[in-house]
Amino acid sequence: MDQQQKQNLNQAAEQFTDSTQQAFRTLANRTVSFQESNLKLTQNFVQNWIEQMHNLAQGTRDATQNLQEQGQRQREAAETLSEEATNAYSEFLNSALSFYQETLSTATQVAQDNLQRGAQATQQAMEAASQAGQQGTLAVSQAGSEGNGRSRRRSRSRS
Fold this sequence. Notes:
Layout: H1 3-117, H2 119-158
Helix pairs in contact: 1-2
């Protein structure tokens, strides 16, 4: 082989080597660029996912707080309703007891006055006291029925 051919061959080999190196450099640069792009895409995906999870957690906390506040208001309303019902029933019982005590007091006084008048007057006083007791019981029973009716109507109207 002559010198010119060797030189041509060396030049061709050198061009081929340069061309191959340049192709590998381009491929390596593209690979690095692709990896950087994938890394950024992955980072953005993860960051968006974290933000979404944070927003979801905050929404859940807000909803839980709201439900807790509503539960507290419901409990307070139930306590107030229960207290009002208890007070109304106590007032009803006190009213009935007071009426019964007044009736009993009156009957006792009549009985004592009649005892002083003698045996016949005592007999009449006992009958009057008995009648007064029956009337008192009837009145307490009627007052109880009316009070129960009012209490039921109040309970229904509040419901």
